[in-house]
Amino acid sequence: MRRILICSHGTLAEGFRNTLKLFAGDMLHVDVICAYDDDEDPEKKLDHYLNGVNKNDEILAFTDIMGGSVNRILNQYRMMERFPEHFHLIAGVNLPLLLDLALYKPDQYLEKNDISKKIASAADSIVYMNTYIPDMSDLDE
Amino acid sequence: MAIIAVRIDDRLIHGQVAALWTNTLGATRIMVVDDKVATNDVQKMSLKIATPNGVALSVLSIDKAAERITAGAYEGQRVFLVARKPGVLNKLIDKGVELKEINVGNMPYEQGKIKVANTVSVTQEEIEDFEKLQAKGVAISIQLTPSDPRKDFMEVLKEAK
């Protein structure tokens, strides 16, 4: 099963979960870790999460910022091989990327190459609209 | 038949339509049919921005849409037709466009409208338009996102009335 894990400083992750539900209803399995939202140590929250994961699960883990403490903890766990085989850690979560990856090839394990491509396309989705001019030449009107 | 799906959605192309339905349906073209939008360059540009990469866009008046569809201009394509109101679809059918199934997405609440579902409210005139569509043999369903259950719209409407 594909599981989405969103980790953030504060409640951003919970907000992403809420928005994902608006888009995709209940078709996604989404867990969140909101670090420093309460007194519980984020590592404990992560340990708790890992207890509920199967070795066949695919985990797409997103963190709010690269190098942030949550991202560092997850990356250490990744290097310590504490996650299942199909674990992917992505820093800099945004909505197009979340949606794109969460819904892509839902019945298969994603390849590293799939994920790199989706990240590149999500990066292109951050746009300064003031200077953006869409190509209207192919509009059927 | 080039038209693979029809949706009534007041917001036309937005997150649910662009990111979810277009993908799920495998549409290669989104066709917005709306007499007002078809003459508004700002709205056309805004719809173009909302259209996913690699998906073609048509923004057409009812007349022009009917003319091109019945002339077979989109044969071989997978067209996802979106309109704001059921009346538009009645006019398309009257002009010879074949529509078998439509899905009701977003019709926002305004005062005086009957609330049919969370995201769908209708006026008396719109109810009549839906009844006309049904009389023409069109199957009408209500389903907000692909993961939501698909229900018979006329049944849901009957319960709401």
Overview of this structure, please?
- The complex is a heterodimer of chains A (141) and B (161).
- Chain A has 141 residues and is an alpha/beta fold.
- Chain A has a single domain, classed as Rossmann fold, CATH 3.40.50.510.
- In chain A, 39% of the residues lie in helices and 18% in strands.
- Chain A has five helices and four strands, in the order βαβαβαβαα.
- In chain A, helix 4 runs antiparallel to helix 5 (112-123).
- The N and C termini of chain A lie far apart (44 Å).
- The relative contact order of chain A is 0.16.
- With 161 residues, chain B is an alpha/beta fold.
- Chain B has a single domain, classed as 3-Layer(aba) Sandwich (Fructose Permease), CATH 3.40.35.10.
- Chain B contains six helices and nine strands, in the order βαβαβαβαβββαββα.
- Chain B has a seven-stranded mixed sheet with strand order 3-2-4-1-5-8-9, with helices on both faces. Chain B has a two-stranded antiparallel sheet with strand order 6-7.
- In chain B, helix 3 (62-70) packs across helix 4 (86-94) and helix 4 runs parallel beside helix 5 (124-135).
- The chains are: A alpha/beta (141), B alpha/beta (161).
